[in-house]
Amino acid sequence: MKALAERYAGALVDVALENKQADRVKEELAAFAAMVRESAELHAFLSNPSIARASKHAAIEQLVARMGASRTLRNYLFVIVDQRRAGMLPEIEQAFSALLDARQGVMQATVTSAADLTEGERAELDAALEKLTGKMVQAQFNTDPALIGGAIVKIGSTIYDGSVRAQLDRLRARMISE
Domain check: are 124 and 84 in the same one? Predict the structure, then answer.
């Protein structure tokens, strides 16, 4: 299933990059996939093979118009429905986001700090992460007061833990072992 979702996502990435609409299509696809996830009726309607293709196209046309989304997304959704892959839309959206980031040289990072970071601290951290990875980094910032101080950064499957809590845990372990 993942390979199939990646294949469909890859086709949309190609079209979005070619039309220079990558960011717009990414937002629109995410919004449409969220609608499908949140509405069991919409998911069932689009996934049901016994419902006529024309009815699905009309519903997609109305939803896309209400969203103010591009023809690129509308046409892509028509293809997904015609190929009976509407049930895979959430997986396709995730694969699209990952493939687009990879093609644009972007890495996603999650930064969890004990307190909110200022814009200056965020910019400094972004610059350090870009230097570390050699790629442009888009960081999502969260707070967790339990960290006491410092931050935890997750990039892909790698975690950099510079929190005070982790340092105290390591110190405690060292003192117990001695």
Answer: no
Query: Could you tell me the two tokens for 63?
Result: 């939803």
Q: Which of 114, 111, 103 is nearest to 145 (CA)?
A: 114
Q: What is the mean pLDDT of residues 7-34?
A: 93
| SS3 assignment, position 141 | strand
CA distance 48 to 125: 47
Alpha carbon distances (Å) from 61 to 21, 58, 131:
19, 5, 44
Burial tier of 45 (Cβ tally within 10 Å: 0-12, 13-18, 19+): middle
For residue 68, pLDDT beyond 90: yes
pLDDT at residue 63, as a whole number: 93
Integer Cα distance of 106 and 163 in angstroms: 25
CATH, residue 44: 1.10.520.20
